[in-house]
Model the fold of this input.
Amino acid sequence: MTCTDTPSNDDLKAALAEVLRENQDWLRELVQEALVDAADAEARREQDVRSVHARADAHRAFPTVYGRA
Done:
């Protein structure tokens, strides 16, 4: 293949697969970190919602109980 040749889709797929295989440990760590970050962000959002409800309930005569049947 010369510099001016356009690679085929099959060539691109094969090259990408090779790069992903060579870097799978790094890619795995990257995905794990992203999942942990997303879980932490979701936990913070849930805590924020709970604290907003708790502050609102503190000002009511009959507070609403969340999470109980």
Remarks:
- Residues 24-58 form the longest helix (35 residues).
- Residues 12 and 64 are 58 Å apart (CA to CA).
- The mean pLDDT is 87.
- DSSP finds two helices and no strands in the chain.
